[in-house]
Amino acid sequence: MKAAFEPIVTTAGLTAAARAHVEDRALRITHVAIGDEAWVPDATATELRNERMRVPVESRSLIGNGVWKVTTTITGEADFFAREIGFFADDDGTPVLLFVYAHDRKVFAGVTRGQETEFELQVSWRRYRKEPSSSPSSMPARRSRT
Fold first, then answer.
1. Strand order through the sheet with 94-102
2. Which residue from 86, 91, 102, 106 could staple onto 16, CB 3.0 to 4.6 Å apart?
3. pLDDT per residue as tens digits for the range 39-98
4. Do 142 and 1 form a contact (C-beta atoms < 8 A)?
């Protein structure tokens, strides 16, 4: 199952990235949060509306041209429809929401109690860099393991 969601880069995320750049340190996506609230986020978001779980990132890799592939696995603690997903970074000891996906009508994924689901997501800073490129592509994919 693949679905395109437009990522929102948060103001807090841009601020954290700028601060990390000035301080010459890396800002890494460390956790992915999943929630079930249907809403339309904007750049002022600092958290998910109804976070159901947060898990550490298993791997991240630079695909190229500012696009990152982030992989994580969740094990459902309850049945719910994931309508929001957030990417958090460790900003010098403080978690900060960098990217958020959400929609007021669409479901990102179904989460089932006891089922492991691996998420592979692509996020990009390209839209916010001064270079001639189109909007960031994002094609979340999930593989379920039973």
1. 8-9, 94-102, 84-91, 29-35, 51-56
2. 91
3. 999 999 999 999 999 999 999 888 887 788 889 999 988 999 999 999 999 998 999 999
4. yes
pTM: 0.80
Q: Is the pLDDT of residue 102 over 90?
A: yes
Distance separating alpha carbons of residues 13 and 27, to the nearest angstrom: 10
Distance of alpha carbon 42 from alpha carbon 95, whole angstroms: 18
Distances (CA, A) of 99 to 6, 42, 145: 10, 10, 26
In whole angstroms, how far apart are CA 87 and each of 38, 98, 112, 135, 146? Answer: 17, 6, 21, 18, 25
Confidence grade of residue 27 (pLDDT, cut at 50, 70, 90):
confident
CB within 8 A of 114, min separation 6: which ones?
Answer: 75, 76
CA distance 60 to 26: 13
Report which of 102, 130, 104 is spatially closest to residue 43, judged by C-alpha positions: 102
Length of the chain: 146
Q: How far apart are CA 119 and CA 59, in angstroms?
A: 11
Residue 82 C-beta-side C-alpha neighbours within 13 Å: 28
